[in-house]
Specification:
With about 100 residues, the protein is an all-alpha fold. It contains 4 helices and no strands. Keywords: Membrane, Transmembrane, Transmembrane helix.
């Protein structure tokens, strides 16, 4: 499976999981007794406008930070050490001059 299809599958799985949880909370509201009362309370909290917006904003921020952390672990550190002339250390002189000539012309 290529990278793009894998990313789409992961995103779809997260969305499906969220809606299954939301459906489970809605189904719990119809249970008899105390568990139904708790289900109705959770359903009211999840679907009230202020709490729903706040919850979705927190969820989006958490997902954003989680995906960024996962990407940084996968791609490695972004830290680059420069020499006294501003060139990255470990890069040969020839590749630096090739890049400079390519940008000029």
């Amino acid at each position: 499976m290529d990278s793009r299809k894998k990313q789409i599958a992961i995103g779809m799985a997260i969305i499906v999981f969220f809606f299954i949880c939301l459906g489970g909370i809605a189904a719990a509201a119809y249970l008899p007794g105390f568990s139904g009362e708790v289900g109705r309370l959770y359903l009211a909290m999840v679907t009230s406008p202020f709490l729903m917006e706040t919850t979705l904003a927190c969820l989006a921020l958490t997902l954003l930070l989680g995906i960024n952390g996962w990407r940084r672990m996968r791609e490695g550190d972004d830290w680059v050490t420069l020499d006294d002339q501003g060139r990255p250390l470990g890069v040969s002189e020839r590749s630096t001059t090739d890049k400079q000539s390519a940008t000029k012309g």
